[in-house]
Amino acid sequence: AGETSCNTRHKKTFNSQLLKNGLCFQSVLRDHICYEIINLHKNFPGFRHYQNKEFCESLMPSFYNDLVTILSTNTIIEKLLLSLESLTGSVHILFNASLKKKESQETRFTDTWHCDTHYSSENIKVMIYLNSQEDSLSATEFLSLEDTSKITNKYNYIGPPIQNLEKEWLNNGKSINEIVQDEYKVELFCPSKPGDAVFFYPSKVLHR
C-alpha cells in the first residue's frame, strides 16, 4: 500500500507547476507570523549598528535563533518541506535561511536577469514576502524553465559576469531586458497579501 501511494503521488506531481515551469506560487505564512518576523527584524539592535560589523555579527546567532524559534513554534519549516514533497515527489531538507530588507530605490546585482549558478540544479529556493507589495510595487520577475532554456541556448546567457558588472551585456546592440521584453513572457511575483511565496529553481530559471 505504501509503495502504491508513493507511485501515485509521483504520478500526480510529475506535472506540477514547479516541475513544469520551474516556479510556482503559494500562500505560506499567516499575517500575524509575518508581523512577528518583521518586528523581530525591526527590534534587532545589530541592524541599528550595521556600520559596526563586528558588533552586528556577534548578535547574528541570537537573531537567527529567535527566527528559527518563530518558524518552529508555528511549524512553518515542516509545512514548507511537506509542500515541497507534494510538489516534487521528493524529500527535501532546509539548509539555509535568510531575512533581507530591500528599499524600493535600492539597486543590486540581483536587479539584472540572472541564474544563481552556485546552486545545484536540484536546489529549490522559497522566497516569502512578509508584507503586501500593493503600495511599494516591489516585485520579483521570472522567466519559465522553457523560456530560460531558449535564451541560454540562443544567446548563451545565464547572467552578467560578476567581475564585470559595469559593462552591459549586449547581443547585436540589444540588452537582455530588451530581448526579454520583445520575445518572452515574464512571470511577475508581486503579492498583495503578506506571507505569499514563490518556489523556484534558482539555477534553472532566469529571475531578477
List keywords for this structure.
single chain; alpha+beta; three-stranded antiparallel beta sheet; 8 helices; globular; disordered N terminus
Description:
This protein is of the alpha+beta class and 208 residues long. 42% of the residues lie in helices and 12% in strands. It contains eight helices and seven strands, in the order ααβααααββαββαββ. A three-stranded antiparallel sheet has the order 1-7-2. The chain has a two-stranded antiparallel ribbon with strand order 3-6. The longest helix has 21 residues, at 53-73. The N and C termini lie far apart (44 Å).
What is the count of DSSP helices, taking H or I runs of 4+ residues?
A: 8
Helix proportion = 40-55%
The radius of gyration over CA amounts to 19 Å
Distance between the termini: 44 Å
